[in-house]
Write a structure and sequence with these properties.
The chain is an alpha/beta fold. 54% of the residues lie in helices and 9% in strands. It contains 10 helices and 6 strands. The relative contact order is 0.10.
């Protein structure tokens, strides 16, 4: 190889050397520009993603009402399911009314036999030992046909109740209480209230002022008024048909069971007043019955007659009372 060629080769290489440098320089800007474009491109998608992220909640928000709508639709279905149940219960009401009426009829049938027995008004019903009606007897108009007066009856009953009061309550006055009569302390100078006897009503253990004393609460009623009130009470029981005469009742020995059986078979309204006349066995047979009471003809009172709803007279008592 010659020297000229050797000289030319460096030039050629030198001339050829700048081309890669220029290419590198040209490539470097291109490479530099690419990242910028990439950054812009990267920035654009980021900007584009943000609205997408915002739009996503909107879609989710739009979906939530859609989820509630099915729930709202489900509620009407339940209500629709309840309506047929109400319609089914409606026809059951007539059945209940029929069930309520049946016990009422049964109760009415049971109450009918429990009504007390009543005789004819204005007369005495005569019954035998089994309680069956035999006949009727007329009553004295002086005792069993007197119109009632409430004021007279109230006055006589109140007088009878007041006469039964014992009136034995008693209390001691300051003169009857035991204790000293000496003055407790001097009149002045102690700073205390003046005091005399220890038996003063103001002190504990002292006497009682205006306390109860033994007395009688009875007040006077005319005899005619008392007899008239008794006749009014007897007339009222006869007017209601509640006067009976026990014709076949004979009790030799006191027996509560015998009297109870007789009154139960008689089936009359209680309480019952059994009127006797010198018949101690009948009186003793009645005194242990809680729904009955016995009384002698001479001891009849207006209060006893009014307290009883039915009167049962023995043969002797009826003769003594009706002829009196």
């Amino acid at each position: 190889m010659s020297a000229d060629e050797t000289k030319q080769t460096p030039d050629v290489e030198a001339a050829a050397a700048p081309e890669p440098a220029a290419k590198k320089a040209a490539a470097k800007p291109a490479a530099a520009k690419k990242p910028a474009a990439a950054k812009k491109a990267a920035a654009k998608p980021a900007a584009a993603k943000k609205p997408a992220a915002k739009a996503a909640p909107k879609k989710a928000a739009a979906k939530k009402p859609a989820a509630k709508k099915p729930a709202a639709k489900a509620a009407p279905k339940k209500a629709a399911a309840k309506k047929p149940a109400a319609k089914k219960a409606a026809p059951a009401k007539p059945v209940e009314t029929v069930r309520v009426e049946r016990p009422a009829k049964v109760k009415a049938e049971k109450k009918a036999p429990l009504e007390p027995r009543r005789g004819k008004t204005g007369v005495a019903t005569v019954v035998d030992a089994a309680g069956k009606q035999i006949e009727t007897r007329e009553l004295s108009k002086q005792l069993f046909a007197v119109p009632a007066d409430v004021n007279t009856l109230h006055l006589v009953v109140r007088a009878e109740q007041a006469a039964r009061r014992r009136g034995t309550a008693s209390s001691k006055t300051r003169g009857e209480v035991s204790g000293s009569t000496a003055k407790l302390y001097r009149q002045k100078g102690t700073g205390r209230a003046r005091a005399g006897s220890v038996k003063s009503p103001l002190r504990t253990g002292g006497g009682v002022t205006f306390g109860p004393r033994p007395r009688s609460f009875a007040f006077k009623i005319n005899r005619k008024v008392v007899r008239q009130a008794l006749a009014m009470a007897l007339s009222n029981r006869a007017e209601n048909g509640n006067v009976y005469v026990a014709a076949g009742l004979t009790i030799e020995v006191p027996s509560t069971a015998t009297m109870d059986e007789f009154l139960v078979n008689l089936d009359i309204a209680a309480p019952v007043l059994v009127v006797t006349h010198d018949e101690p066995t009948v009186t003793k047979s009645v005194r242990n019955l809680r729904y009955a009471e016995a009384s002698e003809v001479g001891a009849l009172s207006t209060e006893r007659v009014l307290r009883a709803r039915s009167l049962v007279l023995t043969e002797k008592a009826f003769a003594a009372l009706n002829e009196a």
